[in-house]
Amino acid sequence: QGVLLTGLGTFAMVQEQFKGEEVYVVRRPVFQLHIESSCLRELMFPTVVIPGDVTVKPLDYERLSKATRLPLRVVEGCVRETILLYSFQLRNRQRLAFAFKDIGVLSCKDDVLCMRFYQDCVKGLETKATWIALLHT
Known about the structure:
Elements: E1 2-5, E2 9-19, E3 23-33, E4 56-58, H1 61-68, H2 72-91, E5 98-100, E6 104-109, E7 112-117, H3 119-125, H4 130-136
Parallel strand pairs: 1-4
Antiparallel strand pairs: 1-2, 2-3, 5-6, 6-7
Organism: Ardeotis kori
Protein name: CCD81 protein
InterPro entries: CCD81, CCDC81_HU_dom_2
C-alpha cells in the first residue's frame, strides 16, 4: 500500500526477502522521490523502485481535513504550498529537513537527499524481523 504526495514522492510499504541462516520476509517503508528535476540539480538521491503490485493512492485530503478539522480547500492548499516551498528551497540550495510526523525526515546532507524513517515507524510495520527491517531501511 502506498500514498502519493503529488510533486514530492510516494511513500509505500514493501515486502522483501532477505536470506541469512533463515529466509525472512520483511515489511519496511520506502520513499520514491518525484520532485521536479530542476530542483535536484547537483543533488544525489537513492533510486527506490516501488514494485508494481503495490497499490498507490493519492493523499486522502478529505480524511486529512476531517482529522485536522480544517476545510478541505485549506488542507489541499497547505499541502501543495508546503511541497512547492520545499522544492523552491532545494532549487535555491537551502538544505532544510522536511519532517513527517511519526514517519521520518527527508533531509539533504552533503548534497545527498534521502528519507530517513523513524525507528518506531519501521517497528510498527514489521514485528517479527524488526532488526532486519531496520538494517535494510
